[in-house]
Amino acid sequence: MEQTYLIKYGEIAIKGKNRHLFEEALVRQIRLALERLDGEFETTWEQGRIYVEGGGAAESWEVIDALSKVFGIVGICPVKKVEDRGLEALGDDMVRFLEEGEYDLAGRTFKVVTRRARKSYPTESMEVNAYLGGRILDWCPQAQVDVHEPETVFHVEIRDKIYIYSRVIPGPGGMPVGTGGRSMLLLSGGIDSPVAGYMMAKRGVVLDAVYFHAPPYTSERARQKVEDLAREIAVYTGPIRLHVVNFTDIQLYIYEKCPHDELTIIMRRYMMKIAEIFAAKCRCLSLVTGESVGQVASQTMQSLAVTNAVCTMPVFRPLIAFDKQEIVEIAERIGTFETSILPYEDCCTIFVAKHPVTKPNLKVIERSEKKLAEKIDALVEEAVATTEVVEIKA
Ligand code: ATP
Ligand code: MG
Predict the structure, then answer these.
(1) Whole-model pTM above 0.85?
(2) What is the pLDDT of residue 347?
(3) CATH code that applies to domain 3-170
(4) Whose C-alpha lies nearest to ligand 1, atom 12?
(5) What CA–CA distance (Å, rounded) separates 1 from 66?
(6) Could you tell me the distance, in angstroms and rounded to a whole number, from the CA of residue 300 to the centre of ligand 1?
(7) What's the whole-number mean pLDDT along residues 90-119?
(8) Where are the domains of the chain?
(9) Nearest ligand 1 atom to alpha carbon 210
């Protein structure tokens, strides 16, 4: 269905040169989101307004659904776009808008808000408001004008064309992807890390990702699950370069040389180190994980500190203070939960100790890692060299 939408964004928060970058990124992300639909769309951007026009085979709910996943959008308004044929004709257009939108204004309050962006328009905004308000009352005499707290607001924007709208469908908010730098997400098959990636993207961050698997201890299906999760969050984040690292030999070597209760923590340190190598290659400025304080032994304050000690880049943990239930709710809302709970094995759980250290000491861990001196550098190099990079798109 052919339809025009006015896109509202948080314009107050952004000023000067940043505003231009924000708008450019937003238009780019809108175009990217609409590319996936079956239809032709035109996204235009003029004087602080973004309009989307088109549709074709795509239903309007599909368009709204796609737009509601574009960060930076605060509201999506289906608008009626009409030619300027004088005030009386605009009144007719308003009535048609009410009829098409099946508005029921009986016993309800409303007001008209006109914005005259084209100053050459002969009638002043207040007069347009009054005239159109009168036409609405003619159409529905049981309606009432209330300029202070109306139940319905009819917006009229006078530009080259005239736009009428009332309904504002909330967008996801946040910042357009591309305005917040680039991060490397440590993406496992669990519930948390996809949510962490989603939250960073909401602040405008572009993501690449790294996944550590341990074939044959972890299956091809476990890997497929991670690719599926990456595809599911790519709806919000845009394309992701997923690095699939074969971690088996490193894990086996740690298992052979180090105390088993320290295994998870040492393994996590090597994951971070390798993630940072790819982050630097991809020009990322930070790492992102799905960690949350106290969730498991490897996420106590002490464990986080010991893991963090290997990193030189900042490590962002957007879920750090979230309860599991809160994370699950986001996962359900963004559509990753069902995939995350599929039962495939994770590389961390295979060699896991019965009683992992919960309060590791950095000095002690570093001493244990000395036992890896002989081969670990070569193994890390090998893991980096054999990493597969998969381009994931929604
Ligand atoms: P998640 O639900 O994200 O898997 P989790 O509760 O299972 O988290 P851990 O297994 O301790 O917690 O992992 C903590 C974080 O470390 C994950 O959120 C993720 O960012 C990263 N991580 C863990 N395992 C892997 C892996 N195999 N590949 C990439 N990153 C991983
Ligand atoms: Mg996990």
Answers:
(1) yes
(2) 66
(3) 3.30.2130.30
(4) 291
(5) 15
(6) 14
(7) 96
(8) 3-170, 182-392
(9) 29
